[in-house]
Prior knowledge:
Number of strands: 24
Distance between the termini: 108 Å
Radius of gyration: 38 Å
Amino acid sequence: MSNHLGGEFCLVCGAEPPLFGDRMCEPCLRARTVLAKVPENVPWVRCARCGIVEIEGKWEDTTEENVWDELLHRNLVVHERAEDIQLAMEPVKVSDRHTLLHIQLEGVIDDLLFQEEHTMRARMANGVCLTCTRRAGNYFEATVQLRSSARRLSELEFQRLRGTLDDVLDKLSDDPMFFITNEGPVTGGYDVVLGSKGLARAWGRHLISEYGGMVLETNSTVGRKDGVDVTRLTLLYRKPGYEIGDVVQWRNRLWRPSAWTKEGAIMERVDRQERTGATWRDLESASVVAQRQDALEVDFITEDTSVGEFLDPNTWTMASVRLPYDHLTGRRGLLVRHDDEWLALPHLAVDSPANTEAQA
Length: 360
């Protein structure tokens, strides 16, 4: 309403100008105007199991200070014409569930400064967040199966693979569904049951980049919810049971992997100079005959073009072995046991520096 209609007097008490707002004098305007409205009690919910807080229907891991700020901003209703608002708040804990929020407020309405104090009681209720509900119900979306090809992995090796999941969790965002429902050793491997398919896939990618190998994904439909199929993911990760330099039986011959490739490995044949690339799938049928770490390095006491003699450290007797195709006079031999006989291996870059001392 405009001040120009009628005479200049307060519409409430008839006082003379100055008039403010809807043609009222200052005392009448102040008596009828509140700077802000605040409810006496406001509820908030904390998960009784893990302590995270529900804010506007979303569960978040946050501090109590943030909760008080959130409650204040959500429940404080300020006069529509108020400007230059200043706010201060002091929380006072009354009990485990109740906290009083003392609020001091000032702002300008129609060029008049208003100052108010309010108290709002924040009442905490216990709830259970979606993650804890699902955990309690053994909810899961994906199973990651850790297995190996070519040989059984040791318990320590499986533990090392499992440890990489913690690294992945550290790097990923705090998604509440990134939890482990169940885990443990099974025949031939280790299974980890997870709350999230995304986490399973991220871990699978990490395992391949760290250790090579292959991942096989299968999805199974377990039901329907809200008209959509509910599926579970099984992710089978096979780690190569061999390392660079091991001796493996593959395609009825003995080979040594000399380098990893994106898809598999470069394989070097033991009995003659032949090299080939193989994919993880090609190598599924490979089996480990001897590990590089178990190979024996020996000095040959005598050697001719095809045979070298050395002292067998197991029996302390002289033994002979056929020299590898790339043998250089004076180079130490790298031997493994195969079919109860000694087998000398051709030289790879992974073999120790001592092995590279070839006589000119």
